[in-house]
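Researcher: Next entry: phosphoserine phosphatase (Pyrodictium abyssi).
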Amino acid sequence: MHEPSRCRIRLVAFDVDGVILPIRSSWGYIHERAGTTRESELNYRLFMEGKIGYWEWMFLDTLAWIEAMPGITRWDLEELFSSVPINRDAYEAVRILREAGIESALVSGGVDVVVSRVARELGIKYWVSPALAFDPWGRLVPGGEPRLEADRKDRAVLSLARKLGYSMREVAFVGDSRWDLRGMREACLAIAVNPHDNHVVEEADYVAEDLLDAAYFILEHSYTWKRNG
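Model: Predicted structure:
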């Protein structure tokens, strides 16, 4: 737990899967559509047991998609995600934060194809996620670039804050799962939305009903540090 009275929020880092999107995992969503859930479960177990690294996990997952859907392209993936709506309250939450002078960013372990779309539709300039790899014809190739490792969101938050010139006392993190814990611990305010992990609930400064509730909580504490300083 943090001390909200010591925070003056200027930047909010949002997780995407399960927070801004209704699906818990964009990787899992592709596996479900491709019929490769069994491969997904095996790859997850190998990673969690420390037998493979994050890049190898990306490689095996994307290889499974290619084998199940030969010739799949970036545009196929964009079409696949086109039916996944952005949670309606996300638009309003980002808008009211922006009007208060608070920057929003996306820090996601999700598929960059959908994370980039979320950023574009919400008008969010800064985002980071693992990047899939495509050949010159737009066809998916195995592997990718782990610009963000799902369990190390703290590094992404620190890097983003440094880039924008903010201290971590000016950063809030909004997440829902165990993959968000390190990012939540690093930020000055940690808010859980739709949490599905007891550890997230225990470590959050606030468990919000939805993104709008989370935004209002952030606004409530954004200038406390200034008033008390």
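Model: Note for the record: The longest helix spans residues 54-68.
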